[in-house]
Write a structure and sequence with these properties.
This protein is mostly beta strands. It folds into 3 domains: 201 residues, Ribonuclease Inhibitor (Leucine-rich repeat, LRR (right-handed beta-alpha superhelix), Alpha-Beta Horseshoe); 134 residues, Sandwich (Immunoglobulin-like); 87 residues, Sandwich (Immunoglobulin-like). 8% of the residues lie in helices and 30% in strands. It contains 4 helices and 31 strands. The strands form 9 sheets. It has a 7-stranded parallel beta sheet with strand order 3-4-5-6-7-9-11, with no helix packed on it. Strand 21 and strand 22 form a beta hairpin. The longest helix has 17 residues. The radius of gyration is 30 Å and the shape is elongated.
Length: 476
Amino acid sequence: MKHIITSILLLNCYLLHAQKTYVPDNNFEQALIDLGYDNALDDSVLTANISSVTNLGVDSLSISDLTGIEGFTALINLDCGNNNLTSLDVSNNTALSSFGCTDNQLTSLDVSNNTALTTLACANNQLTSLDVSSNTALTYLLCAVNNLTSLDVSNNTALNHLYCFMNQLTYLNMKNGITDGLTAFNATNNSLTCIETLDPDYATATWTANGNIDEGVTFAVDCSLDPPTLVINEILAYNYTCCTDANGDYDSYLELYNYGDEEVDIGGMVITDNLNNYDHYYQIPTANDSTIIQPSGFLLLWTDKESEQGVLHLEIELLSRGGEVGLFMSDSTTVVDTLTFVAQSADTAYGRYPDSSTTWRLMNPTPGSTNTQELSLNDNIVIPSQYTLHQNYPNPFNPVTTLRYDLPENGLVNITIYDMLGRQVKTLMNQTQDAGYRSVVWNATNDYGKPVSAGIYLYQIQAGEYMQTKKMVLLK
């Protein structure tokens, strides 16, 4: 019996030492041979030879595939920079403390399992996103020269070196509580206008004048722009004999209304007649008193594509066959108001009644003044006959789309965005609304104001007993 047990133990020991790890890349395997971990190019290495290795340097060896790295389960330091890697899986290397993969062709990198990381260098790749929220011990992050659009280091409370220059960042969250502990920082050559930090005064004093950020970038606790108290209050898409501009032209117009108690300057805001085509985005000129709207005031904008006639003449056009119009903050993303409208009759305006309310109706034109209930042709509010959730427009979209829905009666309306796993992404609407034709805009952000990734999303409306869900596609 003892001989049998001994034989089994010896067999297990043999099998353990005979277990192999697949290494398909010849350049990687040759490196392992040169390091003494392997002895032949046979697409494999004895697992026992690599499982206890703590340091591995395989940089500048024209390696295209690092399959086999999962066998280095004790690895603490890994340098695989300056190769030809397009993908890399280090999820099994949970002991990694220092990881360098610069100068490759990586489009994605998952370091969520590498919670012991203190140094991460992944510059000069093609990364579009990077999640370091699990790497709370991280002190050094070099992610420069990639295609990152957002970066959040708020969980990295030990960080003292951050290099994220030459990306496409529009969002940078540095609210990790660090001030003078951050000894090296460079976020230049991005598309940032504001960086979030818990101590904006310190950041402004320390990082503004030393070439650490692009000119004009500011620091704030919250960089989200609050839309002003403005609504698109009335449009006239088919101006036949209604009213003329200062040049005697019968042009289409839209009217803005300031429902707040402070004046609003629309100079620098962006307006469009096509939410999904940036070529149609027009920035309203600045430094002109005529763009200021007083509290409870109106401003008439002519949508005639004749900006040479003055600051209130826009390079957009409202068409009688129907369309859309959107007003945004200067970042072209933060929505002030949008409207999708159907075909319009001559000299019949489409406006909110009362001013700034959520109820739209056809009415006699009242350019630059309080809207009216009167309509010469039909004095009835336009009310849908049934609940309807329309397909979003545009679809696919990037980054803004309009969701239209019809309400035949007053009631509580909830509109929620979900991902394809059924997880809630954004609550767009949860309030009582009057009956009518409604619309709401989604700018591809979640409930925390952060951009979401490209993919298929679901939008669902619930109003009374009515519930309907549709799909939409976000492109990046």
